Amino acid sequence: MISFEKGIKIEGVPFHLDARTKVDFSFVSHAHFDHIAPHRKVLATPETLLFFRHRYKKVVARALPLRRKQTIGGVKVELFPSGHILGGAQILLEHRGKRIVYTGDFTLSPGWTSPPAEIPKSDIVIMESTYGLPRYQFPTREEVADLICRKTEETFAQGKTPIFLAYPLGKSQEAAKLLGERGYAVFVHPTIFEICKIYARCGVEFKNLDVLSNQSTARKAVIIPPYLWRSRMAAQLAPKKVFFLSGWGLDEGSRQSFKADEVLPLSDHADFAQLLAYLEEAQPEKVYTLHGFVEFAEILRQRGFDAQSLEAPLETPSLKINADGVKFLPSLFNPKS
Length: 337
Description:
The chain is α/β, with parallel strands linked by helices and 337 residues long.
């Protein structure tokens, strides 16, 4: 029996999976704020625990490195990389004769700051499916990298500062790594810089990186959290051009939704083709979908998978029907990116 309430609960498994409110014991797939809570006890990768403790100082933690098997309460457990952010992990549970995989947020696109995702064989997959509609087909990471750098050069040529809006954990480090490696000087907001230091402790090095304060940003790329782009600090960075880094950039109208000059489709989630590719390789007998569009489960059934949605969306999305099908225009603060 698999259910979703405070988080994912599997009958007979002694912990939740990504519980959203405080529980006694939860596996945490990664440390984005919509996947963590001040649980009494946590199971996660060592890297995720570093980020978790950056937010919640006191927690009883059980660290499990990738690809190391443990038995917890009679259930065999193993973690595999998800490719989502540093420390992000899928969990494989061998329970009652079944191999159950919960993907958490994942992508099959190789990132610049985290190991690539793997696809373990499974009987049951509980799949994060944020972009589960055919219209969501992302460019390759290299194409997105070239686009970000081209926009940076164009903005410099206009005598402006390129400001990239990216969530403090994960997307910001990807952008900082890319831009620094391409030779650009990068200033990041102090909250992002603190997380970059944790990345450095885990062996991820950044080039040409400094913390944003009162220095000149002429011919510098700046990365700040989305919620600060209308702050006094951002206002002082004129003239500027603002880019939001999000997979929702594929949606027509996303620029107005995010209140940015442009939205560039850098995502740390699987697109529609990757969701299907994952299942084709895993070959599960049952699929539970989670997050995103409830229509994805029906699409999978039409393709021969035994699939059902584990939950209705926690927040009703704004849906528009046009010639391209359904599209979702999230708010500026939507944590899924």
